[in-house]
Design a protein that fits this description.
Layout: E1 8-15, H1 21-28, E2 33-40, H2 50-66, E3 71-74, H3 77-99, E4 103-105, H4 106-116, E5 121-126, H5 130-142, E6 146-152, H6 164-173, E7 181-184, H7 195-202, E8 206-208, H8 209-225, H9 229-232
Parallel strand pairs: 1-2, 1-3, 3-4, 5-6, 5-7, 7-8
Length: about 250
């Protein structure tokens, strides 16, 4: 019988209502990368007290530690943008200290991905409203990016239902000459499926929260998977855009 057991194990903390990260990670992850998920109610925008969010995230990391994962991804763009880079770093340190397992966030992954692609001036596209857009704009400015243009579409929990073609059209409609890249924010969306078409249409790199978080996980776990990023992802990695071509 073929050995199907993972060579490396990535733990993922998701918003309780997320419907997209798991299928994308499992579709595009290397064959021998195990994806192990736990969920929490994120509560950004004042729905939950910051200290409660903090405690719940640490608890979720402990649950993944029980599964003996090698690395933990906190896929929580909204609450990390709300906490800001300093608060985010504090939470990551606490989770790592509590579990002994390295932790990263989707927002840290986005920052690393944009730097790796040489992007400095960003078009920010957000599926939600003005409050979320303001938090994300402030976070990105705080970590050194210039926002050439930002737009939110006022969608709520149904953002996952927006077709990829609509995100492609939005990127094309809101492109600016000053921008050298596109950041499509939102983990509960199908934005990942728009990446290749946006890059083809605009000639600029496109980054999403899901794509960037998977890229970080694959890069960090590549030694356990038996190769570098390019050899560890499936042959259809072109769908993931230029990011997965970074050496």
């Amino acid at each position: 019988m073929q050995n199907v057991m993972p060579l490396a194990h990535l733990g993922v903390i998701l918003s309780a209502g997320n419907r997209t990260v798991e299928p994308y990670f499992r579709a595009f992850a290397p064959e021998r990368l195990g994806i192990h998920v736990t969920r929490m109610r994120m509560g950004s925008g004042g729905v939950k007290a910051p200290e409660k969010i903090f405690a719940d995230a640490v608890q979720c990391a402990g649950l993944l530690a029980d599964a003996k994962v090698d690395l933990i991804d906190l896929q929580a763009t909204g609450i990390m943008m709300e906490r800001g880079p300093g608060g985010e770093a504090e939470l990551v340190r606490t989770m790592t200290d509590a579990t002994g397992i390295p932790v990263y966030t989707a927002t840290q992954s986005v920052t690393d991905a944009l730097h790796a692609l040489g992007v400095k001036n960003i078009i920010l596209i957000n599926p939600y409203g003005d409050d979320a857009l303001a938090r994300e704009t402030a976070y990105l400015a705080a970590v050194g990016f210039t926002i050439a243009h930002a737009v939110g579409f006022g969608r709520g929990e149904d953002s996952y239902a927006v077709a990829p073609e609509e995100w492609v059209a939005a990127a094309c409609a809101h492109d600016r000459d000053a921008a050298d890249g596109i950041f499509l924010s939102g983990s509960n969306t199908r934005m990942l499926e728009a990446v290749a078409a946006i890059e083809d249409a605009l000639g600029k790199p496109a980054v999403t929260s899901i794509q960037a978080a998977l890229w970080t996980g694959v890069r960090r776990l590549a030694p356990k998977l038996g190769g570098g990023t390019s050899s560890a992802v499936p042959a259809d990695r072109a769908a993931l855009g230029r990011l997965f071509e970074v050496p």
